[in-house]
Amino acid sequence: MKLRKLARQLAAAAVAGAMALSLCMPALAETWNISNQPGFSEVDSITVTGTTGGRTVELFGVDASNEGSSSEYTETDETVLSGSGATYTSLNGHSAPVSVALNELNIMLEDISGSGACIRTGGDVSVDLRGKNILTIPGNYGIYSEKGSLTLGGTGTLNIRSGHGIRMSDSFTLNSGIVDIAETETSTMALQSGITADTITLNGGRIHVSIAPPTSEDYYNDALYARKGIFIRGGSVVTKTANTVSGADTVQHRALHSLEGDIVISGGSVQAEGGELYAGGSIHISNGEVIADVLCSDNGLTISGGKVTVKKGFNGPDPIVLSGNAKVTCDSDLSGALWRFNLSGLTTDGYLRYRPDPSDIGAETDDEGYVVVRGTLEPQPGGDAGNASGDAGGAIAVVALGSAAVWGGYEVVTRVILNELLPEGAAIPANRGQLALLVWNNAGRPEPAAQPAFADVADADMAKAAQWCAEQGIMETKSADTFKPEGWTPKFNVIETWNKAFPKTA
Asked: How far apart, in whole angstroms, are the C-alpha atoms of residue 484 and residue 477?
């Protein structure tokens, strides 16, 4: 069966390349139905490529006589993929960003060796979810990208039934819709990885991942894995371990895993049943709700707002900083470890709760059986003491002068400010060229008054961005003909430059 399928695909490709069966014409319909597309008895593959004026849609398959057939269309209206079938799908946004809608799309493929996937993407891709969409490919990837970003939105759902869920080389962003990832509908088995990307941002919507249990004490499967950072600003993440042994005393999976960067939660909710949050950088929670077994970070943990419940406790360097109206509950005894916490910035409407030592029969507890340590500061008028989204200079000054500086508060606060200040999904610029390009793009890509003349800026867009920013007095040049686009720029300078370019109105 596999050989026959491969033969069909090769025949279709050969026909497309050697014969004039490929038709270039305006799109006849907005919806491409892989199970009932005119001219095809079976669609083996479909490719949507972004262009400056819209999209190119290419279809390969067989016709009613079982002969190879192909068609190519140019589309300026929206592109909608629907129907059911064993159809390899490619979304190509390398030359220009590509956007499609999935409406009741059901792709079912057999296992493929290597990085096989129901949908392969490249470049910048955005997908609007409509209705219930299902990607089934046991043992492989639902969506796979070697280079590029993926943004999902819409009101529909995306169900991925595979060995691995979504793998992006760059960023993954969910603005709305539902993404449900598990190996089977009943989750009797589970996948080895949920969503993998450089950065993961959740602005809204819902992500559910059923993840396989650990294979050893030293290895955990990841529901959401990012190399450079995870940012939860809204929506919800729900993770669980499939086939978890009831009452298991060890962490079963990593719900959020940021390898080198931070985990920043400023809204929404994270519910990790049997899972931990692990950051190679720091963890900062300023709003929303988090339920997990463990919070673990290599570079500090701060909770300045929101509601946090942990089953087993906290791992990482001390102190653990609680401030603002943070409400933190631990379902284990912390009485011998209170020294690890810095509560000096906690307000009276915030607290740290923990289970008492069973031998301490006289411990004073609340109605739920927790010992409660409340903050001592009065809440700030107009906002929480731990809210870092206000005046940047003030926030940074507080960190620099306060006890949080001991554990690197500057880095945490500036990251939080930038994640709220910059456009959604935007990466924090690491150098002058990236900063100029981000400012220029956000300003609407205006033409500079003079032709770009910086000898050290090769990229055409970056050259325009640098020239315009210099003309507007937003950024300084290094000399008459040099901009130093690779020059490092600290996060505070990024904040300062952005506020200069886009000042707040009174």
From this structure: 8
Hey, how many other C-beta atoms are within 10 angstroms of the C-beta on 368? 9
Residue linked to tokens 């740290």:
352
Q: Average pLDDT for residues 131-142, to the nearest whole number?
A: 90
pTM of the predicted protein model: 0.71
Q: What is the DSSP letter of 469?
A: H
Evaluate whether 200 touches 170 at the Cβ level (below 8 Å): no
pLDDT in tens, 98-135: 999 999 999 999 867 666 899 999 999 999 999 999 99
Q: How many CB atoms lie within 10 A of CB 107?
A: 24
**What is the spatial distance between Cα 87 and Cα 61, in angstroms, rounded to a whole number?**
9
- Residues 423 and 442: their CA atoms lie apart, in Å, by 8
Place of tokens 């598990």: 182
Rg of the Cα atoms in the chain = 26
Residues 6 or more apart whose Cβ sits within 8 Å of residue 472: 501
Can you tell me the distance from the alpha carbon of 156 to that of 177, in angstroms, rounded to the nearest whole number? 5
Q: Which of 434, 426, 436 is nearest to 229 (CA)?
A: 426
Question: At which residue do the structure tokens 């990236």 appear?
Answer: 434
217: which residues sit within 8 A by CB, 6+ positions away? 250
- Answer whether residue 407 shows pLDDT above 70: no
Cα 457 to Cα 347: distance, rounded to the nearest angstrom: 50
d(CA 430, CA 487) in angstroms, rounded, equals: 9
How far apart CA 499 and CA 478 sit, in angstroms, is 21
**Residue 121 to residue 150: CA distance in whole angstroms:** 8
SS3 of residue 353 by DSSP = strand
Residue 460 belongs to what H/E stretch?
Answer: helix 460-471
How far is 207 from 234, CA to CA, in rounded Å?
11
Q: What is the mean pLDDT of residues 404-427?
A: 65
Using an 8 Å Cβ cutoff, are 73 and 102 in contact? no
Token digits of residue 415 = 């990251």
197 versus 38: the higher-pLDDT residue is 197
Q: How far is CA 295 from CA 289, 343, 452, in A?
A: 13, 17, 49
